[in-house]
Amino acid sequence: MRVLGVDPGLTRCGVGVVDGGPGGRCKLVHVEVVRTPPDADIGARLLALDLAFTAAIAQYRPDVVAVERVFSQHNVRTVMGTAQAGAVALTAAARAGVRVALHTPSEVKAAVTGNGRADKAQVTTMVTRLLKLTERPKPADAADALALAICHCWRTPMQTKMQEQIALAQRAQGVKR
Amino acid sequence: MRVLGVDPGLTRCGVGVVDGGPGGRCKLVHVEVVRTPPDADIGARLLALDLAFTAAIAQYRPDVVAVERVFSQHNVRTVMGTAQAGAVALTAAARAGVRVALHTPSEVKAAVTGNGRADKAQVTTMVTRLLKLTERPKPADAADALALAICHCWRTPMQTKMQEQIALAQRAQGVKR
If 0-12 CB within 10 Å is exposed, 13-18 middle and 19+ buried, where does residue A97 land? Predict the structure, then answer.
């Protein structure tokens, strides 16, 4: 499974592509950080992101685009930018006929470090190790996008397995939902 | 000036087109409410909005697309949907080469009712009166989209005038910004 992870942001937006192989091995395919100038028109900034996502999806043909699920308990301005950039990524994926998935920051941290409250440095360290990279991906947005993609590769088989187990148990008990 | 106003929302999104004439007269060109099913995939919902905005922009060829500026002090879930739908509208406008503008809900209410804290019924009443409509636009999202477009028609000449006055005053004083 190939996953394109997006750490959404207006000023810096991380885009990371990872191949999830058998046995949980993940492999780096591509990573980039798309930037838009803070003083540019909001329409132009979102369009620049749209073009970058569309180009990356066309080039790397992911099976899934995984985007960070945004919560609004943080700084108002940042959250709006994150929600806007994320929406553009989701729309670009749907336009290309690619499935989308959302993961919360704590799900991503838990998936790659085992701790849902891990800090940025720890996430970067684990992404570097898991993908066997020779250098730490920089800036943090690049590492976060890769962490999102890894998280998706790992969570999905688990979720599918759990759903299968639940379905089996329900069938055994004659329970209908 | 022709303005396409967008009251952004995932479940119901108001789209209203208004022509602003000389002397502040505004004329209704088009109004619709785009709906997407709450149980559909988020990518599919945003793509449906993107297609609707793109079609409306192509058909009515506005000079400006005016979108509600979102604040996050309200309900988290609603705000996220509003930010996402708004981002898709801004991107669709930029892609079509149309200028974008943002107005806050209180700017819109103040523009059409004279009161920044007016309720929805009052906004609908004034939109109906200002556009000389025979029926009240329904649902409220339709009226809000038209109010946004009217607000833009009225605020822009005022802002331009103010900026001209400021520029003149600065030139007179030899002030350079």
Answer: exposed
Does the ipTM exceed 0.85? no
Relative to beta strand B2-7, strand B64-68 is: parallel
- Find out whether A63 is annotated in a ligand binding site: no
Query: What dotted CATH number matches B2-173?
Result: 3.30.420.10
Question: How far is it, in rounded angstroms, from Cα A40 to Cα A49?
Answer: 13
Which amino acid, one-letter code, is at B99? R
Read off the pLDDT of each residue in A43-59 and give the average, rounded to a whole number.
98
Calculate how close chain A gets to B97, using CA atoms only, in Å.
Answer: 9
User: What stretches of chain B show up as alpha helix (H) in DSSP?
Assistant: 42-60, 76-95, 105-113, 120-130, 140-173
Q: CB distance B83–A85 less than 8 Å?
A: no
Distance of alpha carbon A53 from the chain centroid: 13
DSSP strand pairing (B99-103 vs B64-68): parallel
Side-chain-side CA neighbours of B163 within 13 Å: the count stands at 7
| B41 close to A (CB below 8 A) | yes
HSE (side-chain half, CA atoms, 13 Å) at A30: 18
Q: How far apart are the first and last CA of chain A?
A: 30
Instruction: Check: CB of residue B163 under 8 Å from CB of residue B13.
Output: no
CB A31 within 8 A of CB A16: yes
Separation in Å, CA of A73 to nearest CA in chain B = 8
Of B71, B83, B95, the CB nearest to A83: B83
Alpha-carbon span A123 to A110, nearest angstrom: 9
**Between B173 and A115, whose confidence is greater?**
A115
Domain ranges of chain B: 2-173
Among candidate residues B19, B141, B144, B164, the one labeled active-site is: B141
Confidence class for position A128, pLDDT limits 50, 70, 90: very high
